[in-house]
Amino acid sequence: MVEYLIVFIQLLREAGIPVSTGEMLDLLQALSLLEPTRENLLLAMQATLIKETGQERILEKLFDLYWTTLKQKTRKQEQPTKKTAIPIHPPRLSREEFNARLAQMKEWLRQALKSEDDLPAGGGEPGGQGGGKGNGPEQGRRERHFQHGSTVPLAAAGQRLAMIIAKGSEEDLKALAQEAVFTLVPPDEVTPGEDPRQMLKQLKTRLDWVQVKDWLERSPLGEAEKLRQQENLLRLERLLNRELEQLRCKRQPEKELPAIAREANLSQRSFAELDPEQVIQVKRQVARLGRRLATREGYRRVPATRGAVDISRTVRRAATTGGVPIILCHQGRQATRPDLVVLCDLSGSVAPYSQFMLLLVHTMQNKFRMVRSYAFVDAIAEVTVQLRELDLERTVRNIQRQTGIWRTGFSDYGAVWRQFFHEHLHVLHRKVTLIILGDARNNYKPSGEEYFREICRRVRQVIWLNPAPRESWNQEDSIMHLYTPYCRHVFECRNLSQLTRIARQIF
Known about the structure:
Elements: H1 2-14, H2 21-32, H3 38-49, H4 55-78, H5 95-118, H6 137-148, H7 156-167, H8 170-184, H9 196-206, H10 209-218, H11 223-251, H12 253-263, H13 276-294, E1 298-304, E2 308-309, H14 311-318, E3 330-336, E4 339-345, H15 351-363, E5 370-376, E6 380-382, H16 392-402, H17 413-423, E7 432-437, H18 449-457, E8 461-466, H19 480-483, E9 489-492, H20 496-506
Parallel strand pairs: 4-5, 4-7, 7-8, 8-9
Antiparallel strand pairs: 1-3, 2-3, 5-6
């Protein structure tokens, strides 16, 4: 039992849940006081290993996958080795599950045939109001609304998906997810190394996911009903992901379980790869990081009568005494609130990363004496006032629409540096820290290096955060090598882990 727990805890660490040796001992002590059941084991892990909101869902997912895989592995080891004892066609489903799924498929077929019979040949309104036995007037209105209540025509798969999300039954959603995964990838087919995101995209295509989502946005339903059905769509997406993960673990558990754990580690996921639910979780962690950094005082070095020796001033003073450091100069730390100027690229490839940087600066702006924020694509504009709003995602969209930063739609760093030099140079001085977030992809346009050099000379330090992978710098239209010599620090910043480390270093 202990060796299985050690392997599972390693999975939790790969998923971004830190587990110390002391917490492992607490878990073992808790298990010694409880009955050895699956529910008690999960409760003990939740009580001793979970420290932040959101980690319990990761724990539950990995717990189910790991112990289900472990049970299947144990069952295979217990099977007899004689060929005569192995059935030729082993059943894949239990009798109860098979009968339930068969009844569900029969019900879907009856509904599909009934909807076709109710439709007139000319494509007008159905004649009946509700249908046969078991279907009331509300069900009939739903079926007619799916086919005629929107400007978006739905195919058969889309009508079925729309009916299921309108009903919102957990059993129907789970059955649809199981059937979709079984149809796309039968269990007897082996496709190792297939990208799970591509598999999910294929599932959505077969279910007419985009058409149903578009239909839902255009339908004349009330706002409450739309929100309910959108939530059902998210539930179905989570079930599809769950079925795909179980399928992957059945095929290659030794390889896929660690891969699923690494995918669940949001701190290592690129900001551009996060789904809407994960974006909310990461934004919550970025805001928490900003509040933590905002309470930490900043310091600067000043001359003092005692303390650490200031080497540079001591060497300069030694020039008056023949190079012998007779007089020692000291330096101390004085609390300060620096000035900050942030320039963020909001072009299509960088905008997801800029949102998190702007959120961090917005959360900890009380730490600085002055904060000025600018956004740019092929022109630049100040957005300090707009960033005071709470809904940062909507603010970023409004910035792209309402300001003049989006002219051609392609990044032009040379034009941005030239415009900033002529219009906003007055905000820079020797106490300013200039932070730039961009990938330095200039679409083969002039670099404006001379303007960037003059901008860097005006400030205390320049820190460039590049969301592109480091190996792609200085390739194709990237001109990062032209700007690097004028920056004090250049970091790769594409996920929460990197942003946290950089923020703690520079703030």
